[in-house]
Amino acid sequence: MLRFLRRLLLFLVTSFVLAGGVYLNTKAFHESWHGFVTGELAQHGVHLNFERLTVNPFGGLVARGVKVFNDASKQHIVASVDRLNLDVDFGSLIEGRVKIDGLELSHASMALPVDPERPELTMIELKDLSARALLEERQLDIRHAEGLLSDGLRILISGVLELPESKSDQTGPSAQERLSAIREHRVQIQHGLDWLARFRAPHVPTLNVKVSGALDRPQELKAELLFQADGLEFEDYVWKELVAEAEYDGGFVDLKRLHLVDHLGMLEATATWRIGADHLRFRLTSSADLPGLAQAFFSSEQLREVVFYEAPQLALEGKIFLNKQKPEDFLPAEVTGRLDCGRFGSRGEVFNSLSLTLGANPEGIFVRDALLKHKTGTLALDVMRHRSLGFRYNLELRMDPTVFLPFVLLPKTREIIQRFAFDETSQIDVHLSCAGPSTNMRECPSSGHGVLRHFSYKNVAFDSAEMDLAFLGDIQNYANVRVQRPDGPAEAELVFVNDDDKEKWLRLVNVHTVADAAGIVRAFAPKVADQIALYRFSPGTDVTANGTIGYKNNPQFNNYKVDFKNPVGGAHYVLWNEDYPINAPNGDVHIVGSMLNFDFNGRLFGDTLNVKGAVNLTPGVRSYDVEVRAGRFPYAVFGRKLPFEEVRAEVHNREGVSRIDIAADVLGGDMTLKGSLNDNREPNTYEGELRMSVLSFQRFAQVYSPGNESVGDISGHFKFTGRMNDWKALKGGGALIIVNGNLLALPVLGPLTPIIGAFLPSPIKGYNVAKKADCTFEVSDGFIVTENIEAESSAFRIFSRGNVDFIRDDIDFNAEVRMRGLGILLFPVTQLLAYKGSGTVGDTKWHPRIFGGGNKDERKPPTEKELQEAQRIGGNPARPKVNPAPPRQRPLFGN
């Protein structure tokens, strides 16, 4: 019986426990106890709701799908937790009361909306959250809490929080204020998480937080924070160590220490900020990598191209303005500091050092005592930009400015710098200052003084240059210019430059030099310098330039003049590969628009010379006119110089076709040459006509056959066509007439005359004087061919034909002589007076034709067809070859 009772009691207890267990995990239990639990927590100021409430078999209650609200109205969710364990007093639970002794989370997940009023926008997620907290009356003792915040930060929390009292009057404004405080705190947390998410790390950074204060007064909460991270990477920049220690006290943030170590050095910083305030105060010292810091902290690419070879030393302090519209073009801060750095490089240039003092506020920014050192020199700079005071700078440049080309963005500034070239011997000393309303150089006038030594400008070498400088927008003003070139000094009263995109011109006022005439002009007007350089003026030539020069395809502004003179010096001009010295040169070059006009005077061969004309400088246009007047101009013809006098020459070129008209006095007569040259094809072709009228044969003989006195005159003409540098292409024809001339003075026939005289019975006075000598001739394939040379003196007549190979200087002539009045007795002898001429024009050898003679390895003369073409060009009608009739014989005993 006793055994039965024991078994019955055990069965009843077990059934009761099982029934209770089933009940505690049913919906009925949740509905019965939901109000007790939420009500108990509400008494502690914690307003929540949950989807399901069950009993933990190992103790306590388990709430699932928990939502924590801002206040009793339960309108705004401030946190969501998937599971929350509640430690309860089961004795009180049996009595129908709920007393919660603690809270526990185990690998739970929590979601914190950044804006509780709009929870669907952004959530802060806290994963793998484990926590243990005791609830004693109105205090929440957080013994331990640890979780992963947004997958990027391991957070550990401990501390004691005072729970709010449950009062009906806590709704309304106080609840709204609490909501705003929660939102502001979480916005800052989200910004921090977003910034931290940009980094990669081998280990998750940790944040230790110790909190204290009243939950219903979040603005009065206190916290101690310790952030630690190792090996944080942002792109190619690595922080070996990062430690941040901070305190939060009722909305006041005190960053007690920010410690950062990278490959160059370390950064130490402190800061203070009251949440909601418009600024934070800070102090910073750094020897770390500044480009890496700027990129990591501020996502700034401005220093990305800078590489420091030595740790830069930076010190800053001041305050930064937050939650405030950034001033246009200014920094939202009040900062002062100092930067000192050693060797660094950027964009291919390496600098030795940089030091400066800086300051900034919302009204402006300044840099003082900036000193940049480079292997070529230094740059010193003071600069200020202020909202009301405008823009100012003082600059002292003592280094090669071309170093800054990789950093200059304005094309005009780049172009100005690129005009200069410096080397290791160069010295630069430029002082500039500016004061204007803004950094817009069109509104900021700059002025100063510059001294340069051993440099070149537009490839023109200078030993030194000194000038006053003034700039305003597109206007550049160079005044009181004093220049020393290797060949002499130069100066300018003013060089005024207008670099406007639509109107580019410069004005020269009294540019004067006694240096190389073309050299100094080349710095301003290269095309004019090219024209002047042709004359190769001797040192000491006085050159003056005045006027306006349009550049960069703006010839419409051209109106300038270059005057030159050298009364005791000279110049040179190369014509047809001959170098002609000119004494006492003077003249001018005047450019108006695209036309270059020149007027050159001097003395050539002891007589006057004047050259003037105009050249069209328009690209693609070939047009020029030249007029030359020379008192004397000796020129070599057939190896001997002829004394041309009163030379008058005109050349007019249009689109590559030159019309030539030359006239001169020579050997007591006159000569003209008219023709054209076409340089539109290669080789250049030409055509023309040469005429000679009554040249003194006596003076001709003095040049070509000294010692053979003669009188008489020479006339003739030659009409021709050809190609430059191709003598075989020369074709044409003409005629030559000599009246009362000495045959001994004639080329080719002259050496034959003494041979003929040997056959005369006694000296006959005037036997060698030609009453008349004439011929027609053709030129083709490098030959001069004649079939009808006829010379008649008082004693004989000469009939000759042949050719001259003027390319090889080789002749081939036949001559027959008919005596006058020798009678029948000498008839057999006269038939032997036939000769063969060979050799050169200057050294002709005649031999009786019966004995042979002539040149060996002869080049063949032109064909009949080629001669007909030459006759057509020269205007000589073709004539059949006719042997001259023998002279009429007188009877031996004539009556």
Description:
The structure is a single chain. It contains twelve helices and 48 strands. The chain has 895 residues and is mainly β. The strands form two sheets. The chain has a 45-stranded mixed sheet that branches. Strands 15-18-19 form a three-stranded antiparallel sheet, with no helix packed on it. Strand 3 and strand 4 form a beta hairpin. Mean pLDDT is 80; it is low at 11-24, 168-173, 822-831, 851-857 and 880-895.
Give the SSE map.
Blueprint lengths: L1 H23 L2 H17 L3 E3 L2 E4 L5 E9 L7 E12 L1 H5 L5 E14 L9 E14 L2 E11 L3 E10 L10 H24 L9 E9 L7 E13 L2 E13 L2 E10 L4 E9 L4 E8 L3 H9 L7 E3 L4 E9 L11 E9 L2 E3 L2 E3 L1 E9 L2 E11 L2 E10 L3 E9 L12 H8 L1 E17 L9 E12 L2 E13 L2 E11 L2 E12 L4 E10 L3 H6 L3 H8 L8 E9 L8 E7 L4 E6 L2 E15 L2 E10 L2 E10 L6 E15 L2 E15 L2 E10 L2 E10 L6 E12 H8 L8 E11 L2 E17 L9 H6 L11 E12 L2 E11 L2 E10 L4 E10 L7 H5 L2 E6 L4 E5 L15 H11 L21
Q: What does this entry show, briefly?
A:
The protein is mainly β and 895 residues long.
Rg on CA atoms, Å: 56 Å
- Roughly how many Å apart are the termini? 214 Å
Helical amount: 10-25%
The quaternary state of the protein chains shown equals single chain
Structural class of the secondary elements? mainly beta
Spans where pLDDT lies below 50 across 5 or more residues = 11-24, 168-173, 822-831, 851-857, 880-895
User: What is the average of the pLDDT values?
Assistant: 80
- What does the largest sheet look like? 45 strands, mixed
